Amino acid sequence: MERLVIFDTTLRDGEQSPGASMTQEEKLRIALQLERLGVDVMEAGFAASSQGDFDAIHQIAQHVRESTVCSLARASLRDIERAGEAIRPAERKRIHTFIATSPLHMEKKLRMTPEEVLERAVAAVKAAKNYTDDVEFSAEDGYRSELDFLARICEATIAAGATTVNIPDTVGYATPELYGEFLRALRERVPNSDKAIWSVHCHNDLGMATANSLAGVKVGGARQIECTINGLGERAGNCALEEVVMAVRTRRDYFGLETGIHCEQIVPASKLVSSITGFPVQPNKAVVGANAFAHASGIHQDGVLKSRETYEIMRAEDVGWSTNKIVLGKLSGRNAFRQRVKELGIPLSSEAELNDAFLRFKDLADRKSQIFDEDIQALFRGSDKRRQRDRYEFVSITQQSETGERPTATVVWTEDGVEKRSTADGNGPVDASLRAIEAEVNSGAEMLLYSVNAITGGTESLGDVTVRLSKGGRVVNGTGADPDIIAASAKAYLNALSKLATEAPCNPQHAV
Ligand code: KIV
Ligand code: ZN
To answer: Which atom of ligand 1 is found nearest the CA of 238?
Structure first.
């Protein structure tokens, strides 16, 4: 069967989602999971956007061996040079260069003539070839571009050495039939179209990113789909990896294509991205939503019990939902713990790291009788020895609340290793604890969202808190988990403040 290339851009386009910015250590953890998932290409970032993005790509390029590591670059020599440097250590490397080709973008954003754009695109592809043979060219806002000009620029970039040509629906304007036909017509007009792999990159503004991408494949002849885990991405997001992969696999009869994705790694990847970014997955989300395989109606339950195929087109375990969710408890030993950590794909750098985590596990097991996979993942989140320490780290909290009285909280944390303590009152104990921190840090940030979820069912579950803060046009998400939701809230707030204190990557869509 012909191969469909899966190009994951969770770490680049996904990260452009407001509030989804990730630390270098978080990006590496996601990159390693994407490698386990078997993505062909991972776009690790946009090297020229910031030193932080450059370093994250460089580190990923040092660790990832199976997937191709890619950096985005605008069609400028400096961007190409930064991208080339960042991906240098990778076993397999790609530079993805782009420039806008729609009349609207060329005139209003770039203020360039079509001829200038074409020249820049060709020069960028040629420059990228000095760093790697694997060069992708994207015509930004391609779907709203004039077919003749688009065909000329595709022909010229392929002739200059582009091995993949990508036609994004940057603003999510396409519909499946029209997008598929557009791609087919375009390929027919490009004389050297057989010298490159054609790619689709669809945004989800009208909820059609998956349908458009699949039409681009089926009707338009594309053999690469650009997508993100959980459909993370700018505005309404990108095409969701789990949806296109499972559509192609479940309807192999229709698409006649195969991917290299290890589907049982889909749910772990979804959970990892959700927990790191703080973007919850909606329960009814296809494939990775908590209810995606839950049958509530009596008729459905009866049918599934008699024969699973009556109402199920995929098997939950094939995409990584574990059938046996209770894993460990108070009496579990170090070996059982080690084995589960290994099965969950959590990377361990040393025996000491395992020992530390085991102590935290025992402590949690004293307070919670059943330890689920999600609890173990949360135990490791934020306590990995290799991670860069956050600027603000939670130490402890004391709080008092009584019906009819205004609650107070005293929070202790470190700022760059120096201990700080502050007390405040508030409308409730969470409000009091966040006020206590803010009284000392004085960030002036605006809180856009506060949410608390139970990581697993039941009141003894770990509380998983997300705090979204905005300051000076930047939006960040902080997360924190603890059986005590007040402590989880303080951790999440400190995590968000730490992210605000780091350098912000710039958004390629907002710059030339
Ligand atoms: O949506 C888009 O056009 C992009 C390009 C940079 C490929 O993300
Ligand atoms: Zn995009």
So the answer is: 1
